[in-house]
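G., before I forget:
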Amino acid sequence: MTPAVIDDTTLYAVLAPFAAAVVAPFLTRWLKHNAAWPLALVPALIFLHFVGFIGPVSQGETFVAAKAWAPSYGVNFSVYVDGLSTLFGLLISGIGTFIILYAGGYLKGHPQQGRFFSFLFLFMGAMLGLVLGNNLISLFIFWELTSITSFLLIGFDHLRAASRRAAIQALVVTGGGGLVLLAGFIVIISATGEIEMSVLLASPDIIKDSGLYLPIFLLVLGGAFTKSAQFPFHFWLPNAMEAPTPVSAYLHSATMVKAGVYLLMRMHPLLGDTVLWTTVLPLFGGVTLLVGTILAVRQTDLKLMLAYTTVASLGLLVMLTGTSYEKALEGAVLYLLAHSLFKGALFMVAGTIDHEAGTRDVTKLGGLRSLMPITFAAACLASLSMAGLPPFIGFIAKEILYYGTSDISALGQLGIMVTIVAVVGNALMLVIAAAVAIKPFLGPEVETPKHAHEGPVLLIAGPVFLSVTGVIMALFAHTTGVWFIGPTLSSLLGEFTQIDLHLIPTKINAPVILSFITVGLGIALFTQLDRMRSMIASALDAIGWGPDKGFDQAVSGIVSLATAVTRVLQTGKMQTYMLLTFVFTALAVLLPGYLSGSFPALPKLPEYRFYEWGILLIAVLGLIAVLIAKTRLTAIVSLGVQGFAVALIFMMFGAPDLSFTQFMVETLSVVILALVMTRLNLSPRDHRSLASSVVTGVVAVAVGLGLMLTLLAITQQPFDSRLSEFFTEFSRSIAHGRNIVNVILVDFRGFDTLGEIAVVVLAGLCVLALIRIKTRPSDEALAKSTAGQAEKQTVEAR
Amino acid sequence: MRTVIFRTIAPYLAALMVLFSIFVLLRGHNEPGGGFIGGLIAASALAIFGIACGVASVRRAIVFHPMSISGFGLFIGALAGVLSFFKNQAFMTSQWLIFDLFDVEIALSTPLVFDIGVYLVVVGAIGSIALALEEREAD
């Protein structure tokens, strides 16, 4: 069915969080932490907007909306609404509402709370743009925006080295993966000629038939696996737990890390159901599931336990998506929904415990049941769902996924492997669920760093609502299936499907038996939790190396490589750099003329008026003054005299803008060069040997002569006036401006200027960093001279 | 360099230069001038003020860190390009709002906003470099 075109409301829904991000700091300054209430209205309204799509989407309808962005490149800001994007949109906005409230309570009184809200909203907008993205390029931009906002949020507590390291690590892994994805998208665009996802999905075999399936598959996988923390890229996710808990609950369990899974599901009709797909995905997913659960058992920190089970769950989702079998895919969709609900709730519970009791180490917690009854209730509901027990959504998810994987007739060998991995993984998941729910709350009361008590309503609203939703969705399983699971499954399969879900299994069959095995195995393992933990710990110690350490080694390897290259290329002597630069400039301008033997003819001198001769004379006098100046300062000022004379020449020959700018640049160059010179602590005079004077003199004359000849050669070419005519004709009528130079800068070629001012900002930052750098005395001169040079380049960039 | 005459005149000179830079910025679309050159004039005003009265008083006078001013300029420069989005036109398509106020034609436009962005970028970047260099001179 071709997608129906809808109005722009959905586009604005994606942009609304960005607007909220601008407002949030001001609102927070005014209302303190209570700003969370009005701010939470934004995602709540977005949620309601997506609720409106549930009805039509469950009937198999799809929608698109688009606005032009850079239409000449085919880049549009466009959205595609179907079952999959509706489910994700609802999760992002719905969970987002409670995360905003939770952040209000969690960071109450924090001086940067407004900034935190801002970052969260930026992320929310980016994530919505990602899951709704129809245009591949805009999808990629939102994809990278989620990486960048995740970097900002992980590094929120930027005074701690651990936060900074985790933030950079996450950015390098997920941002790098994003670049791989961009390459994949570009291959798709050039292989198929299509840039809109909805168009691609309309002809599912377009990529498989293009002959470039393998590179596209690998590149897309590179993006998805890094984002969704698949082994061996899983290490950034647990480290990201350095972020404040609202971030862990939102980005690193419920939404962002699912972006990779989203992409695989979105592209399943295009890339899925091939031998490659059903081999690679289950393999990596299965390994990730086992590694994740085993490492989770090892941890004692509540957040880290949950983080590793998130890794495991993402592995499970990838593994199920990799089977390309309808029932297993249905299990994947159900599990995705269930996981977002229970894991979001559990993270918020862990954060509440941390906030109220002062620690989240399970070995130091106990007996919080009576002190925090509501949190305990929410933790129980969420954990039971995670453990896959009835009557929770997690149970239905597990039943369906077993039903899918154990269908030997359809999946064969693959099914057996996947089922075994899933049973072991789920059993370990149950162990962690039990450990998280039971250990801190039951048993004798333990002395905690803070005197624990129930959290405020801002903190408990989220976990309670999410965990209760998990129960309600299970109790109304049929509706859940029709509204959410069926439409999403339709997106994965590429054809409209309706499904019928039941909470209670209708007969004793393989999934029920597998469930019993899982629960039994889980309980048996839970009794041995402490022994398992120490066993895994000693095993890991014996291995000693992991991807996390590998990341550090790679980073320090790059740094030492860069240092070595710099040592070779950069001698640290300014004179050498300048001399080499100018020698090559002279060669570049002189050699072509020499080789072709075609130097331009010298024109006859035109009749200059006496004041024109006067200005030329000033320029020459300025130059002579530079050469004979006794001190460096005099030389700099004399150079300025020559520059002003050039500005006057520009003025006389009808380039007032150029002349104006030349005046200012000359002034600032003199001022700044003088400042740099006085700081270099050089002797005021410039002593150098005759030989070096001769060398620099020859090079200087060669460069000057070369540039002059080049200019002559250019001006002797016939002048192509088409551009000038265009600008003269249209600057008034199109751009409403008489000053053509300015109209070109800010309107006709405004995009270039945007790039240039971005460069100016960056150059300013770099120079500032160089000036501020605290170096050893011997390095100081080098740093300063580099600063001076960069400065000059910035000023003369125009 | 800090003579009495220079120190007395510099604040007025700097104020005049900033005023002039804004004039140059605003007339830029029709007469010689524009954001880049205006920004250079304003940056040299800051430099002069800094040489005469010390960097601390410049920093007090401009309230924000010059690099933040620069970043803000880039932000509104990019924002000026986004406005065309609401009319479903390509990024950076210029939008004009021309109206009469007391019989004077006022022309507001996204290129003007963009030019103001350029102005702020240049003032901020060059100003912060000049100020940083002047600051270190003292120690």
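The two ends of chain A are 54 Å apart (CA to CA). The CA atoms of residues 17 and 125 of chain A lie 5 Å apart.

More on Monday.
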